[in-house]
């Protein structure tokens, strides 16, 4: 009995053809397309070389036609690759003498950079279809390749039985449309330039339409996300720093349909600010090279529709509720972040400059900190979210500073009988102590946005905490709770953190820490070496 093994489905050839590839003159190329990628076999004089371009590295492909050339003589041959210019099919400036259809395939291949690092290298594969005497027939074949490649990029199930259907179908049309919110004031103020020069070319290569809105004032993104018809877009791309991400996320939770939006419409960020902690954390999590092109991994993820769940933390103070995606801090690092705003034109260097200033004028603060170790379960059950939701609320931290301000009873807490949240403005929130009305909108102003979103897992601020919580009281140089790896591009705060591990990494620097100790701590942040200082009780963390 003879047993034959079948070829794996992923490696089964969907399309195969011999092409004249413009970028590789005087060579014959056998091009094979499978679910895993594009295989280029170069054959020339007893020499065979093979290159495989993974489908996940291809972002798009376009069918083009040669452009009419300026002629210096009565007779001219078909343009060679050195001077070929192509245009869209519906352009009026076409070269009728060239019946070829050109398929441009755009890929960003992961290659080795200097040393052990890697980078994405832009590659264009140009395939020239000229097997038929008429352009229409050549274009039909090129469109068939384009349709199948596009469907593979989207993750559709494509089999050999579908090939005939695709050859008879209409041209592939992109069903996605992106909303782009760009903050021109983020960081050094290069948001517009970053979008036009770095992001737009990739969107054009992927043939993904978008709607661009430039933020005009503080909380513009927050108000826009809260009030717009968000379902007309398949995703949101934020161009700027961590500030515009904060606005967008909190604007999302001010929508009554926040759960549906969070489940169906992903949010991405293209770094254009000073810190860019979230963009750096995402690249770190996905093992994507961040340097020398920080915007590239974000732009590629947006056009490829790569999505992953990420932890968000509900933060409740005596006067407001907000949702945080990166960290919550008090003391040294927070002072540097806030006070260095006056040096925004320096970009990320503003943090370095102000770190020196804060080291010279070192401060400490009195406070009381409660935290729940991650191996201790919450007393209150975690609320259920809709299936497929990308929200995951991790362990929380209570922090009370000794400023003389009393806690206010708020009816947005877990112990409250009400469920509606509202704010006085775009970024400040009102408690029942401050409000004078009742009903769904006690403030009486229908234009004031409410804060929806998942409720707290913890007792409200006025209620005592369970005995499983740990308490620490005294003077602190800083207390910083982070849920992602990076607080900034050069600040690897929690090396072992994951995007959605449900864990907060708590770092505590007690009062009495010397400037020398603090300097060593700061120097270690760029590589994560500061984590080793935990044995010196300078840093305490829970996982």
From TrEMBL:
**UniProt organism field:** Zophobas morio
Q: Where is the composition biased (Low complexity)?
A: 425-434
Name this protein carries in UniProt = DAGKc domain-containing protein
SMART domains reported for this sequence: DAGKc
Which Pfam families does the protein's record reference? DAGK_cat (PF00781)
State the InterPro entries in the record.
ATP-NAD_kinase_N, Diacylglycerol_kinase_cat_dom, Lipid_Phosphate_FormReg, NAD/diacylglycerol_kinase_sf
Gene Ontology cellular-component terms for this entry are: cytoplasm; membrane
PROSITE patterns xrefs: DAGK (PS50146)
Every DAGKc domain range: 173-319
Q: Enumerate the GO terms in the molecular function aspect.
A: lipid kinase activity
Please give the residue ranges the record annotates as the region Disordered.
Answer: 425-454
Q: Which GO terms describe its biological process?
A: sphingosine biosynthetic process
Domain of life, per UniProt, equals Eukaryota
């Amino acid at each position: 009995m003879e047993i034959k093994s079948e070829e794996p489905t992923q490696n089964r050839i969907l399309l195969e053809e011999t092409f004249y590839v413009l970028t590789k003159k005087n060579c014959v190329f056998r091009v094979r397309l499978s679910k895993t990628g594009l295989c280029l076999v170069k054959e020339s004089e007893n020499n065979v070389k093979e290159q495989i371009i993974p489908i996940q590295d291809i972002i798009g492909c376009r069918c083009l036609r040669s452009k009419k050339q300026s002629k210096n003589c009565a007779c001219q041959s078909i343009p060679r690759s050195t001077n070929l210019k192509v245009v869209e099919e519906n352009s009026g400036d076409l070269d009728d003498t060239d019946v070829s259809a050109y398929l441009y395939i755009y890929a960003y291949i992961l290659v080795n950079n200097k040393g052990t690092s890697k980078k994405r290298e832009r590659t264009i594969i140009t395939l020239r279809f000229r097997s038929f005497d008429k352009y229409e027939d050549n274009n039909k074949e090129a469109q068939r390749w384009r349709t199948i490649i596009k469907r593979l990029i989207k993750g559709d199930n494509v089999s050999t039985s579908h090939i005939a259907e695709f050859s008879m179908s209409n041209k592939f049309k992109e069903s996605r449309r992106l909303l782009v919110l760009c903050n021109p004031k983020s960081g050094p103020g290069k948001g517009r330039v970053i979008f036009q020069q770095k992001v737009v070319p990739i969107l054009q290569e992927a043939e993904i339409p978008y709607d661009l809105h430039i933020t005009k004032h503080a909380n513009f993104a927050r108000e826009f996300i809260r009030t717009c018809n968000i379902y007309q877009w398949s995703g949101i791309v934020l161009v700027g720093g961590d500030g515009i991400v904060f606005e967008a996320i909190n604007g999302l939770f001010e929508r009554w349909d926040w759960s549906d939006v969070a489940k169906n419409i992903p949010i991405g960020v293209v770094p254009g600010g000073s810190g860019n902690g979230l963009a750096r954390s995402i690249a770190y999590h996905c093992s994507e090279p961040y340097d020398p092109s920080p915007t590239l991994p974000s732009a590629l993820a947006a056009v490829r529709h790569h999505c992953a769940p990420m932890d968000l933390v509900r933060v409740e103070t005596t006067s407001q509720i907000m949702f945080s995606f990166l960290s919550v801090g008090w003391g040294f690092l927070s002072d540097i972040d806030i006070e260095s705003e006056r040096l925004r034109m320096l970009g990320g260097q503003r943090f370095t400059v102000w770190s020196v200033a804060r080291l010279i004028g070192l401060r400490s603060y009195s406070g009381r900190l409660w935290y729940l170790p991650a191996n201790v379960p919450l007393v209150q059950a975690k609320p259920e979210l809709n299936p497929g939701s990308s929200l995951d609320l991790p362990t929380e931290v209570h922090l009370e500073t000794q400023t003389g301000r009393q806690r206010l009873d708020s009816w947005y807490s877990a112990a409250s009988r009400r469920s509606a949240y509202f704010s006085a403005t775009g970024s400040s929130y009102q408690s029942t102590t401050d409000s004078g009305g009742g009903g769904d909108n006690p403030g009486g102003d229908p234009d004031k946005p409410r804060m929806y979103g998942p409720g707290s897992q913890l007792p409200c601020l006025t209620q005592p905490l369970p005995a499983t919580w740990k308490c620490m009281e005294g003077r602190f140089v800083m207390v910083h709770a982070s849920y992602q790896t990076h607080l900034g591009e050069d600040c690897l705060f929690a090396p072992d953190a994951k995007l959605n591990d449900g864990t907060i990494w708590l770092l505590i620097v007690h009062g009495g820490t010397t400037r020398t100790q603090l300097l060593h701590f700061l120097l270690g942040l760029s590589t994560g070496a500061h984590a080793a200082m935990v044995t010196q009780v300078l840093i305490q963390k829970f996982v």
